[in-house]
Amino acid sequence: MKAVVDNYPWFALQTRSRYEHFVAAMLRGKGYELFLPVYTCQRRWSDRIKELELPLFPGYLFCRFNPLDRFPILVTPGVIQVRLTTRKSLLSRPPFNLGCLDNLGLSCKSGKG
Predict the structure, then answer these.
(1) Which of 3-12, 33-42, 84-93 has the highest mean pLDDT?
(2) pLDDT tens-place string over residues 64-103
(3) SS3 state of residue 82
(4) Do residues 39 and 53 lie in contact, with contact meaning Cβ atoms separated by under 8 Å?
(5) DSSP letter at 51?
(6) Most exposed: 14, 49, 57, 79, by fewest CB within 10 Å?
(7) Number of H helices, E strands in the chain
(8) Sign of the four-CA dihedral 35, 101, 61, 88
(9) Which residue ranges make up each domain of the chain?
């Protein structure tokens, strides 16, 4: 099944504010391949300093799925919409270059970039 999923294009999903990790967990549970680039930062409170993982693109995550079967994505709690320009673009060409997303994922995992 993995080879079939690899042929699907990547799409950006718009999520509710601060729901990126929640939506990612829900979609992973449904078996979708996701990419949520994060960075680590330190936040200071009055009594402590804490390291947080925040999304690189707030309000968005990337998911690979069949564009003709997007209903399970859209009914996931926290998902607002699949970011597209027109319906024609959804069916004719992938909105993101797969190589760029894969390269971004490698650089984020390695801690560079």
Answers:
(1) 33-42
(2) 999 889 999 999 999 999 987 555 555 555 555 656 666 6
(3) strand
(4) yes
(5) E
(6) 49
(7) 5, 6
(8) negative
(9) 2-96
d(CA 43, CA 73): 32
Which tokens hold the place of 88? Answer: 């024609």
What is the reported pLDDT for 112?
46
User: Torsions phi, psi of 10, nearest 5?
Assistant: -85, 140
Instruction: Determine how many CB atoms are found less than 10 A away from the CB of residue 67.
Output: 18
pLDDT category at 24 given cuts 50, 70, 90 is very high
**What are the residues whose beta carbons fall under 8 Å from the beta carbon of 9, sequence distance 6 or more?**
64, 67, 93, 94, 95, 96, 98
Assess contact for 8 and 99: CB atoms under 8 A.
Answer: no
pLDDT of residue 83: 86
Query: What tokens does 74 get?
Result: 């859209």
